[in-house]
């Protein structure tokens, strides 16, 4: 492909001193997926010495990604139709690897640097976080007048939507509305998190402050040692100056394949930043016939170049849950007029059900696209009495006992009266998917607290410890999100009709369209013996008019835009 000219329907995205169009890609990568099989991008990674003895742990608590794509340009730049597709594909690949992803598109210059800065300030100040920034759009290489022949003195910049195309008449405004890649060296030092990876799918010249030496392949075959846990800022570019980068990005293609495990050269179930850089150089340069040669390296700062960025590998089905609501966007806890306390549950992509068992419990992919409030506790007898004026429960004597002996139909009457009392229509039963998501708390272990069944009695009143009765809510430990008695005490009604799970991925599932039984979940003091019954995937159904002293419920409240 001629530099700067379309070929085979592809636009060039890299612009050297004489090249026409550029693609600039920026990634600041936190980590993701499941080493300790926790969600939210959390890993506890054992660190070993040369003999294989564990000598420490590297913790990644959260994984965040900022994906910025600019394809709809003004000011004389060609549009880049491939950017939108690249952004979506990278977003999905990162979510599969455990990242919480924020996407921004078609930013003007005033928004561009602020977006990166704000993201760093929000997510990059915690030591054990990982973040990812991905920028897709035009890039440019400026050959400065004082040294046009030395690539080390060239300046690589990324182009905002409103940056004018460089001409003698637009030079001043052009320079004022570009973001030099070397600026990211400064941003890298503002990050307090341990590990960061910046990736530019563009020419990578003039990025002063970064080293760009390729790693020695012999250095890639190593254990995950304590040295890897040191601070690091790593950088990868898709090419050097004066190399065209196609709008249909081979670099993006191999970046995604690397995250799927193909860059793991020593089969240790991790991809390091150095392994990723070498993999991209080998694959992209072959596909581009040597016309595009990715570069990689670490920041030229002895305090920030000793570690290695890590991608723990896991199969897509093992990534049990990826939260898609930024934590800062969730509303605070709230209490309604009858004393019901609510906590916000984030939107998420999750695996629902079990990998073994009948189709009615089969594991499948679910997207819950909006956060929601759910009761911190099961509905109590005091709250039921305040709304309904009666108490149908068998076990009494404490107003904080969960209400029980209520049918699904009774609960619908309660919800109608609660909505009327509060002047709203927001109160309802959880869907079965919402219930399981809240119960698991985005944790991928057997139980929300881990895999050790002996710990169940600390969290759940089941048949082994309840003494054949209910107990006041909130006495045992909550799950990670602060929700009590999601397992044990009383079984809990859900909104759905009982039916077999779907075999394909679904968004905001509402259950079977019709049926005989309504779903109830969670196990209780009766028929709640672990591990057969008291499990977050266990599901049962009963006729809507069925009531029992081991069956109660908790309430969901829809979160409306602009409301607490």
List keywords for this structure.
564 residues, disordered N terminus, alpha+beta
Computed structural class: alpha+beta
Strand order of the largest sheet: 4-3-5-9-10-12
Mean pLDDT: 82
Q: Which percent range describes the beta-strand content?
A: 15-25%
Count the helices. How many? Answer: 9
Q: What is the helix content?
A: 10-25%
Query: Sheet bearing the most strands, described?
Result: 6 strands, mixed
Count of β-strands: 26
Task: Describe this entry's structure for a reader.
- By secondary structure, the chain is α+β, with helices and mostly antiparallel strands.
- Helix content is 18%, strand content 22%.
- The protein has a 6-stranded mixed sheet, sandwiched between helices. Strands 15-16-19-26-20 form a 5-stranded antiparallel sheet. It has a 4-stranded mixed sheet with strand order 14-17-18-22, covered by helices on one side.
- Strand 1 and strand 2 form a beta hairpin.
- Helix 1 runs parallel beside helix 5 (250-262) and helix 5 (250-262) packs across helix 6 (273-287).
